Amino acid sequence: MSSRQSQALEAIRKASDETGVDYQLMVSIATIESNLGANTVQHLKSGNRDYGLFQIMYKTWKGLQPGKAYSTDDYDQAIAAAKFLKQLIGSSKFSNE
């Protein structure tokens, strides 16, 4: 594991601890999305781009981090991803009820 990936894991751990979102879930998603690479950019057929550790689109970012400039910083991405996951987990679509 590279030192870069270790930094990403530290940021994910911090976001997980702060938000209560499962650490291993977040690591799994970041690994699939970017192989723990904060500088990863995916160019989509629609012309949009996904950026960073969790491949968060700019439009999604604005809804998760209102007023905060878009960032590919590991911690900023992890916090935004945790907020998004909490929304999904809390929605009726993913509820056990």
Tell me the strand order in the biggest sheet: 1-2-3
Based on secondary structure, the structural category is mainly alpha
Q: Tell how many strands the DSSP assignment holds.
A: 3
> Cα-atom Rg, whole angstroms?
13 Å
What kind of sheet is the major sheet?
3 strands, antiparallel
Q: What is the residue-mean pLDDT, rounded to a whole number? A: 85
Uncertain parts: none
Order of helices and strands: HHEEEHH
The gross shape turns out to be: globular
Percent of residues in helices: 40-55%
Please report the distance between the alpha carbons of the first and last residues: 40 Å
Number of helices: 4
Range of strand content? 5-15%
Layout of helices and strands:
Elements: H1 3-19, H2 23-34, E1 41-43, E2 49-51, E3 56-57, H3 58-64, H4 74-90
Antiparallel strand pairs: 1-2, 2-3
Helix pairs in contact: 1-4
Sum this structure up briefly.
The protein is mainly alpha-helical and 97 residues long. It has helices at 3-19, 23-34, 58-64, 74-90, and strands spanning 41-43, 49-51, 56-57. It contains 4 helices and 3 strands, in the order H-H-E-E-E-H-H.
Structure overview:
With 97 residues, the protein is mainly alpha-helical. The chain has 4 helices and 3 strands, in the order H-H-E-E-E-H-H. The chain has helices at residues 3-19, 23-34, 58-64, 74-90; strands spanning 41-43, 49-51, 56-57. The chain has a 3-stranded antiparallel sheet with strand order 1-2-3. A hairpin with a 5-residue loop joins strand 1 and strand 2 (49-51). The protein starts with a helix and ends in a 7-residue tail after the last helix.
